[in-house]
Amino acid sequence: MKNISIFVSYSWDSPDHKAWVRKLAEDLDRYHELSVTWDGFDLDELSDKNAFMESGLHNADYVLVIATRKYAEKANSRKAGVGVETYLATAMHWEQLLRTRTSNLVVIQREANSVPRYLKGKLHIDFSQDAEYPARVSRLLQVLKRESRVPRPAKLLSLNAANKSYAFTRVEDVIRINHKNRKAIVDANEGTDFSGGNKIKFELWETKSPTTAYFLALFNNTIISQTIARAVEVLKAKALKPTEMTVLSPIIGHHELKRLFSDCGYPIRVHEFSYADYIWTFCIDEELKSVHAPVAVANYTDQAVLVPSGDDPGFMQEDSAREFFSSQFASSLTPTAHVLIAPGGMGKTSLCLALVADLLSREDRHTSVVLIQVEMLRKYFLQEGSTNVRVRSVYDLYELYSKAQGHTRIYDATTFDLAVLCGNIIVIIDGLDELASLLQERFELDRFLKSIETLHDELGSSQFLLRNLCKSPRSDR
After folding, report:
1. Residue 155 — very low, low, confident or very high, per pLDDT cuts 50/70/90?
2. Structural domain containing residue 46
3. Do 137 and 116 reside in the same domain of the chain?
């Protein structure tokens, strides 16, 4: 960041006001990147004050106008030093507006109704309340750095792409993992009401293990207050009075669920989890979470990767394939799967191993990694044969690979699917094209890819890296 020069324009209203301006100048000048011109720092008996004002105004990147009612009076009537600065600043202000529709004058309002006439059209930063001083300084620093009040979101969607909606259908599977004795008080059909102005969808479950517990499952695109109110209506109609409720939802929001229940006459204790957090915390064995990173290839050299830009057939180059995929898997919005395509000998396996190590080294991670190296299956098939092997889904491949590796503890199908669709498990398949050559028609590629799509369609959170589906790169892929 280049250094920013600031000129402070103010009036000597009182000793207290001069002290306040000094504090602001000192607070800003403490930053290495900011250089503040203020008469207390830079004007003395040897200086020409008019030259000081003219030079300060025209050479500064920003001019801070410390607006008080006395300042506005002097500015509007062109009196004293403030009048001279206003005369110079007015011409500069309108010239900049005509050229760029912005000007470098920043209004610091110390008192109400104190903005000079020529600056009435500008927004100001309200410094009138001393208790708000730190927050207003923070906003001023944002302005000086040309940062918006609200960060603009990253461009992740396209109007040319079909809108994708996700529909979570596996609430019972989530509850079934830990609760064999369960019943639906309200299923998805009964709990859906999009009539009129309603946006309600929920499922309500009762479990016994052996104590009775209740689960309220929420969904996307609903109005939480309406949904909670309808759920409470059901509880009252069935004379159920739980003291605690576990609430599951796609993403934890700031819904104040306890207050919403209380407002409906049910002051209960609420435990809120996203589906992903619930699966990770309560449904996956600790032994399966503790995955050891594979041994990386010695002297691995990172390489660039070409990424489709969205302007088919254009590509963008990312200088580090390793950093690109690591950042993609850290994002909450990812494609259904990444397909890595490159000729032999380009280091695709080395990249997969390095990526697994990166993913497993994250702090506070709520994800694990399943790495499937198809080359390892070749040796297994030579010893055991592959006549009875058929791969139709991601879980089929995971189960087969775990057996080939001699793993004694593996995910069951339900837990694996739920963990994958929630994003708790990142699946990296190194050599999917080799599986096709090993199994021929016993590898049902269409059904396999459909199983990936089906998992992703539940929550839009599943994450895959497939290396690679063809022997050489093509410009139209």
Report:
1. low
2. 4-144
3. yes
